[in-house]
Amino acid sequence: MGIDTLTTAIEQSDITKLIELLEDKSLPIEEVEIIYNAFKNHKELVGQVAMNLSLRTSVYERDREYSPIMVALLIDISQNPIDMGARWAVAKNPHTPVEVLRHLANDTINLVRALVATNPSTPSDVLEKFFNDEKIVRDGLSGNPNTPVKLLKILADDNDKMVRMRLAENRAAPRDIIERLLGDNDVDVTKAADANLKSRA
């Protein structure tokens, strides 16, 4: 579409066109930044910028799409009170700086804290504090590669199948914990544990 299309859409405050541009994860990050800076008080566009950053980021290829611009946007959005939903996208983004994750770990919205709990960039000391949080927050710990082993051992006996399932899939979990889950009473958990162990062979 080009910068001319972007400039025209900004000048005309064409929100529909700007949202359409942001829905494309291949939109240059510099143009995402231009849109955000022009409309950081527009709730829908702030949310769409956060969504764009999520779409272009892979948890499995964490170095992909990393840039100083992305980090600056994530920091700014985390402090932007205009859209709570945008904080969810920041909380789960693996490029979000640790100091921002520490800040969001105290967010009043439990879903924001829950997403921080699943973020592979969240440090173990923050994850440890989450163990005494609400269930929705604690449940995210089992799949996080930074969760302390002593907590993973407890989560291996959790009543919630999905907690055990995420633990069984956790590539960073110690082998002995995954081997314990081979004897789980749920077939999906045992399959996940088996696949995890085979992937390490």
Walk me through what this model shows.
This protein has 201 residues and is an all-alpha fold. It has two domains: 1-122, no CATH class; 124-201, Leucine-rich Repeat Variant (Alpha Horseshoe). 62% of the residues lie in helices and 0% in strands. It contains 14 helices and no strands. Helix 2 packs parallel to helix 4, helix 5 crosses helix 6 and helix 13 (175-181) runs antiparallel to helix 14 (187-200). The radius of gyration is 19 Å and the shape is elongated. The chain starts with a helix and ends with a helix. The mean pLDDT is 91.
Which key features would you list for this structure?
201 residues; Leucine-rich Repeat Variant
Present the secondary structure layout.
Layout lengths: L1 H10 L3 H8 L6 H10 L4 H13 L12 H11 L5 H9 L5 H7 L5 H9 L5 H7 L4 H4 L10 H7 L5 H9 L5 H7 L5 H14 L1
Explain briefly what this protein structure is.
The protein has helices at about 1-10, 15-20, 30-40, 45-55, 70-80, 85-90, 100-105, 110-120, 125-130, 135-140, 150-155, 160-170, 175-180, 185-200. It is an all-alpha fold and about 200 residues long. It has two domains: about 1-120, no CATH class; about 125-200, Leucine-rich Repeat Variant, CATH 1.25.10.
Number of strands: 0
Structural class: mainly alpha
Low-confidence stretches: none
Can you write the helix and strand succession as a string?
HHHHHHHHHHHHHH
Shape: elongated
Q: Helicity level, as a percent range?
A: 55-70%
Number of helices: 14
Q: Roughly what fraction of the amino acids lie in strands?
A: under 5%
How many angstroms does the end-to-end distance come to? 47 Å
Overall average pLDDT: 91
Question: How would a textbook summarize the main sheet?
Answer: none
Task: Calculate Rg over CA atoms.
Answer: 19 Å
**Integer tally of domains:** 2
